[in-house]
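Q: My labmate handed me this sequence with no annotations at all. I'd like to see what the chain might look like in three dimensions before we decide whether it's worth expressing. Could you predict it?
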Amino acid sequence: MSDSKEDRSWEFAAGIDTVSAYRGYLQKHPRGEHRREARRRIVRKRLRIALFVVSFIAALALVVALAFAALRGVANSMS
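A: Here is what I predict for the chain of 79 residues:
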């Protein structure tokens, strides 16, 4: 790899490894050598975030359902 401005931008973005850093690389170098990899990494990070959010919501829904079931059981035992 040469020591071009684009290569330094890519190394910086890859070192930080955030969506924002990859977007910055793409803004500076929209036709850059690493544009496909930058886009791929952005998609992968977004999918990981989405998976985390979905998993968190599913876990929260399970906790709420179990709490309601427990409360229903307590209410039924009191009647």
